[in-house]
Amino acid sequence: MILPEELEGMDDALRFARARWTRDDLASAQHRMRWFGFILLAISAYTFFAGFMIAALVAVNQHVEINPFQRIGYGINAVINSTQCGIASMMFVIFALIPWFQARKQKQKLGTWTKAGIAAAAPSIRFATWLERQKAPITKIFLGLLTLVALAQILCKVESQGWSSLTALFHTWDGTTAAGMIKDRYHQGEWWRLFTAPLLHGNVVHFLMNAAALAYLGKRMEVLARWPHLPLVFLFGACIGGEASARWINTPSVGASGGLMGWLGFLMVFETLHKQLIPSRARRQLAAGVIFTALIGIVGYQFIDNAAHAGGLVAGMLYAAIVFPASSSTERPNSNFVDRLAGSAALAMIIISTLFAIWKIIHAI
User: What is the residue extent of each domain of the chain?
Assistant: First the structure.
């Protein structure tokens, strides 16, 4: 397979195509910046005004004097503590700010897109093309399991509140009390929540973000490290992340982020130990993923379980460091009988947890 970047005489055509692609991406990102920025500004302004007016009501009801600066403080606190503002900020960062930054960065690199620059980029492009063509059936099974639980949560909401509740799916899904990580119940002996909570999600945005991460990280890990380690690392990362959340975060939590961060941590260490398998530019994408997750965690700290993220990331890194020795081989490691046996047991545990989570959600209607 020969890539266009490796063909002689394609330099001018590739530069022209890249310039057009960069120009289109930048225009699209600027458009999203305007729209998502307007939405964020509108929600923040509305929330600020509501807090500003609440200060007046507090002054009347409690018979106290509140000056204009204190009312402004009420408005600012309302914005800072607003879940809607937090979600809008996170959406702005994910869908507008980061694409705009990447497009600007690509535009600045156009000057280096010479023959030498094209040749340097060819290995990472070849790797991405090869990875895209590989099959990852276990990753698809994971995506199917999360989808089944999501459908159970949606149907539970519809059953309890009617079809009109579908308009609220962007806010909160049902099922958290039934099978999520409710910290006091977990500490009281409901240990099974450690396995069911990673399969639930809070809303459609949460689900779609994790589904996208699962599709990319799962396929990359399944192809490079073989399938048995996919359920093993997910289960290990989700459990360690869930335990970290139970110890450090008091609010209920759901989501596959602990297991997914386990995959990300695993890949970072695994690819560092097997440098001949992956081009250096492709490895840097994983570091960018960690930075992206940290940025989202800072923006959405009110409703994002950073303890689960950190616990899962460390768990995945430890797993890779212990299980896989450093290698200079260009061949992917093969799985043995013990790997397949342990991986099958872990996958069976995840499937059982999925069915149990669905049963708990339906039983709670």
Answer: 7-113, 132-363
214 and 143 Cβ atoms separated by less than 8 Å: yes
Q: What is the pLDDT of residue 331?
A: 87
Distance CA 139, CA 219 (A): 6
Q: From the first residue on, what is the mean pLDDT of each consecutive set of 10 residues in the chain (365 residues)? A: 74 82 88 89 89 78 78 84 76 80 82 73 82 94 96 82 58 83 94 96 86 92 95 97 93 93 95 88 78 74 84 96 90 92 97 96 82
Distance CA 243, CA 181 (A): 10
Does 1.20.1540.10 match the CATH number of domain 132-363?
yes
Sequence-separated (6 or more) residues with CB below 8 Å from residue 350:
142, 145, 195, 199, 231, 234, 235
Match 């503002």 to its residue by tokens.
85
What ranges in 63-97 are assigned the alpha helix state H? 68-80, 83-92
181 three-state secondary structure: strand
Residue 61's pLDDT is 79
What pLDDT score was predicted for residue 310? 94
**Beta carbons within 8 Å of 230's beta carbon, 6+ residues apart:** 138, 139, 142, 218, 221, 222, 263, 343
| The predicted structure's pLDDT at residue 118 | 72
Residue 35: φ, ψ to 5°:
-70, -50
Q: How far apart are CA 44 and CA 30, in angstroms?
A: 20
Backbone angles phi, psi at 203, to 5 degrees: -165, 180
Distances (CA, A) of 64 to 49, 56, 58, 59: 20, 10, 8, 5
- Token pair 């920025």: residue: 37
Q: How far is CA 12 from CA 5, 18, 117, 137, 160, in A?
A: 11, 10, 13, 39, 61
pTM of the predicted model over 0.85:
no
Residue 159 tokens, joined:
């059953």
Q: Is 253 helix (H, G, I), strand (E, B) or coil?
A: strand
Report the pLDDT value the prediction gives residue 179, as an integer from 0 to 100. Answer: 93
Encoded tokens for 152:
């159970």
The predicted pLDDT at position 110 comes to 77
